[in-house]
Amino acid sequence: MSDQLDKTAQGEEGSHRQLPDDKALAEAGDVMIKDKEGNSLPFKSLWTGKPENERQLIVFVRHFFCGSCKQYLQALNESLPSSSLSEANITLAIIGCGQPVGIPLYAKETNSSCALYTDPSLRTHELLGMKSNMRTSKVKPDYIKQSLLENIVNSAQVALTSGHAFSGGPPGQNGGEWLFQGGQLKWCHRMRNSTDHTEVKELKAVLGM
């Protein structure tokens, strides 16, 4: 394991990096998430029964109209393209918190070719300790290229023109990054505020890329 993974396992990175207990993770694994068609599947199907040398990176994003999260996924697409992830035996899945009807537009807006799901029940978020607030980071993350005002305006425009303005998910629900291998959680990062996804540079270090 990398130093970052060791610190997480030992709880040295703060509560937002501490792994959930086995009971909470098992319960979360049984939660039914949904794909773009509205079909249900257990959350654990994304990280169990996979090849031993494969790692599964799961990114929980905020509501489907969140401009900050869209910029984060764009940064991931640029720095960790699907070809690079494939070479490293890493799969990527995105999970939102809105209704399934919002997934197709979100995939188009973020130019995402990876698997997208959602948990409108917010049960996985609750069990895994992902918090709800609308605060922003004191220091603007590298992945944020727009101002807060631009983010708000763009998010509102997309919501109003989407035809599904009330299906994006709770505006305050935050997400995080979760890395699995061999059916076990190896590392995690819970967003402490609305602009607190793991910086791409750090995520690449965690992945050894």
State the order of secondary-structure elements, H for helix, E for strand. Answer: HHEEEHHEHEHHEEH
Number-wise, the strands total 7
**Helical residue percent band:** 25-40%
End-to-end separation: 13 Å
CATH topology, anyone? Glutaredoxin
What is the second-level CATH architecture? 3-Layer(aba) Sandwich
Summarize the main sheet: 5 strands, mixed
Mean pLDDT, as a whole number? 90
Strand proportion: 15-25%
**Oligomeric form:** single chain
Helix/sheet category: alpha/beta
**Biggest sheet: strand arrangement:** 5-4-3-6-7
When the domains are counted, the total is 1
InterPro entries: PXL2A/B/C, Thioredoxin-like_sf
Protein name: Thioredoxin-like protein AAED1
Pfam family, one: AhpC-TSA_2
Description:
- The protein starts with a helix and ends with a helix.
- 34% of the residues lie in helices and 17% in strands.
- The radius of gyration is 16 Å and the shape is globular.
- The protein has a single domain, classed as Glutaredoxin (3-Layer(aba) Sandwich).
- The protein contains eight helices and seven strands; from the N terminus they run ααβββααβαβααββα.
- The strands form two sheets. The chain has a five-stranded mixed sheet with strand order 5-4-3-6-7.
- The relative contact order is 0.22.
- It is α/β, with parallel strands linked by helices.
